[in-house]
Amino acid sequence: MSHDDLLKRTTDLALEFLDGLPERRVRQTASVAELRAALGGPLPEQGTDAREVIEHLARAADPGLVGTAGPRYFGFVIGGHVPASLAADWLTSAWDQNAGLYVTSPANSVVEEVAAGWLLEILGLPASASLGFTTGCSMANFTALAAARHAVLARQGWDVEKAGLFGAPPIEVVIGNEAHATILTALQMLGLGRERVKRVAVDGQGRMVPEALREMLAGGSGPLIVCAQAGNVDTGAFDPLEEIVAIVRETRERGGWLHVDGAFGLWAAAVPSLAHLVRGAAGADSWATDAHKWLNVPYDSGIVAVAHPEPHRAAMTISAAYLVQTEGHERDPFDWVPEFSRRARGFTVWAALKSLGRAGVAGMVERCCALARRFAERLREEPGVEILNEVVLNQVLVRFQPPRSGDADALTRDVIARVQADGTCWLGGTTWQGKAAMRISVSGWATTEADVDASAAAILRSFRAAC
Ligand SMILES: *Cc1c(COP(=O)(O)O)cnc(C)c1O
């Protein structure tokens, strides 16, 4: 079998899936037992023809696929893939570049350089920042906090990469009480501990209360890392970054480091009508965001940017005698991320930005926010439906009250289960400040007003059936 026949057949299979995406049931149709039966079996002793393998995979996996890339998936914060970035992803696999070094892929290195410049510009970050292409925002948070750990300890004369943390001056780590779980994961991996952090009080939308931060930092001394957030995963709310930057800079003699987790919220910077939400963000020391969420690039694609390239590189770089590092100014991508050998992630980001342009990115983000507001309007017309958050971005939190007395938590969870089973759309639940809530996240480029209306109708149908 030639590449030619195999890849043409694979294109047909992919197109069949993509063409069916708007109409297919959003959630999987197969049970885990059915999927195991269809895909399992002993390790084959002998090989199988590649075309047969791909036909089998496509057929067997299909009922276990979720329409996350389609127009009516509103779970977590996901996003689909804009066509140019999907196509670039195919090429990335065909090219099979090792993105570690300049010498293993000059094209990737330059594309990363160019895409990094575009990203810093569209996100309103300093052009002098260093930038790395990670698997996702979790590793972007990890990378940024590793740079922070390096910098705040270097100020104390401690080389954490060489000496480790045993005996190091203790670092005060401060996060908002609604920090994303992956901030804690990053801290746990960096030896900074998930439970020794100090948590700053938040308001009803999940925003850090600046006065509470100022009080917490007052009179402190020694190395300091503060983690703020642009875009709460439930409410979409933003920490007041301008005030937080000012407060952290007041600790000047401590040289406090401010990190901003903006997995999806940082993209507000690309939209003139939303940019006020991230005002002040450029004054932070590091930022983490995702391309696979709101830029609608295929998985996996995260972005870390650091205002101070030296600690960023010091925390990540690898050296070994056999590594041919370039002498000049060529970019060696492994200087900026935890991995050495890895996928050439710059191509998909480059293609997404090139195909959308500044206006296209702004339009996509703005449209998702308008659709989130439409969702909230449609739902709150119904007596018993409560919108718990200020819909400032693309997230809507919904709670359902029983018509007479009853348990709103149980009813809300029941409505979520019914919507998931209905299959018109998919969304999940959360507990927001002690109350069960349905989460709606509009992050996909393909969602239309008709999709929102059909999904809102499915939600209200499920609510009425559950009462
Ligand atoms: C999604 C998310 C993360 C984690 O990002 P991944 O790309 O899933 O690793 C971190 N922070 C926030 C606010 C998020 O929404």
What's the quick description here?
Helix content is 41%, strand content 12%. By secondary structure, it is α/β, with parallel strands linked by helices.
The name CATH uses for the topology of the largest domain is: Aspartate Aminotransferase, domain 2
Number of strands: 11
CATH class of the largest domain: Alpha Beta
Mean pLDDT figure: 96
Question: What oligomeric state do the depicted chains represent?
Answer: single chain
CATH architecture annotation name of the largest domain: 3-Layer(aba) Sandwich
- Tell me roughly what share of residues is in helical segments: 40-55%
Structural class: alpha/beta
N-to-C order of helices and strands? HHHHHEHHEHEHEHEEEHHEEHEEH
Tell me about the biggest sheet?
A: 7 strands, mixed
Principal-axis shape equals: globular
Annotated CATH homologous superfamily of the largest domain: Type I PLP-dependent aspartate aminotransferase-like (Major domain)
Q: Provide the domain count.
A: 2
Question: Which parts are unreliable, with pLDDT below 50 for 5 consecutive residues or more?
Answer: none
Helices, by number, come to 14
Distance between the termini: 58 Å
Account of the 3D structure:
Helix 6 crosses helix 8 (181-189) and helix 9 (210-217) packs parallel to helix 10. The mean pLDDT is 96. The protein is 41% helix and 12% strand. It is built from 14 helices and eleven strands. It has 467 residues and is of the alpha/beta class. Strand 2, helix 8 and strand 3 form a beta-alpha-beta unit. The termini are far apart. The strands form two sheets. Strands 1-7-6-5-4-2-3 form a seven-stranded mixed sheet, with helices on both faces. It has a four-stranded antiparallel sheet with strand order 8-9-11-10. It has two domains: 3-68, dopa decarboxylase, N-terminal domain (Up-down Bundle), CATH 1.20.1340; 87-353, 3-Layer(aba) Sandwich (Aspartate Aminotransferase, domain 2). Pyridoxal-5'-phosphate (PLP) is lined by residues 77, 136-138, 180, 182, 231, 233, 261, 263-264, 290, 302. Pyridoxal-5'-phosphate binds next to helix 6.
